[in-house]
Specification:
29% helix; alpha/beta; eight-stranded parallel β-barrel
């Protein structure tokens, strides 16, 4: 059984958060990024946090958001970490900051000083498009932080992605959704089963 951590992201409702928790997610992600169709408000994030088991981390996703605003939402929503796309802050923070890189080639594997985690995402975040998983080996050599992969992952390909990229974790949003953009119970459970059963020797 794979020990890869599973982050189910883009959760928009309490019911979807509880579904992901029941299915075996190691982390739940909620999106605050402006322009995202999965964006939620503070009140919804607070309701999701209150409904989840205390030990299950809730991670906020942000795009080019000033650090003070990130930290305010982390505090008020009860988040355990913040995943930052776009601009990377020069200042350190007491909360873990995860750096999301939009990967298109080797040059896009840029350093993010102080990152508690590196997420390799597709060239356009939230698009459901993947990157060349072979680049994960180069990222592993460059970064000391734990390495997650995202972008285009589905129940059908996540095991292959894990076998090729050998990440510490996987992150999925669109690959477990229905046509309305909410979490599909069958796809959520199938994704978790496939990731847990991946060959990671």
């Amino acid at each position: 059984m794979s020990a890869v951590r599973i982050k189910l992201c883009g959760v928009r409702t309490v019911d979807d958060a509880l579904l992901c928790a029941e299915a075996g997610a190691d982390e739940i992600g909620v999106i605050f990024a402006a322009g995202s169709k999965r964006r939620i408000d503070l009140a919804t994030a607070q309701a999701i946090r209150a409904a989840l088991p205390r030990a299950l981390p809730l991670v906020g996703v942000f795009l080019d958001t000033p650090l003070d605003e990130v930290l305010r939402l982390v505090r008020e929503a009860g988040l355990q970490a913040a995943q930052l796309h776009g601009a990377w802050p020069a200042a350190r923070a007491l909360v873990p900051l995860y750096a999301a890189l939009q990967v298109s080639d080797v040059a896009s594997l840029q350093a993010r000083p102080g990152a508690a985690r590196i997420l390799l995402d597709g060239p356009a975040g939230g698009s459901g498009k993947s990157f060349a998983w072979s680049l994960a080996a180069l990222a592993r050599a460059r970064f000391a932080a734990p390495l997650f992969i995202a972008g285009g992952l589905t129940p059908q390909n996540v095991a292959q992605a894990i076998a090729l990229a050998r990440p510490d974790g996987v992150d999925v949003a669109s690959g477990i959704e229905n046509t309305e953009g909410y979490k599909d119970p069958a796809r959520v459970r199938a994704f978790v089963r496939a990731a847990r059963g991946a060959d990671f020797k």
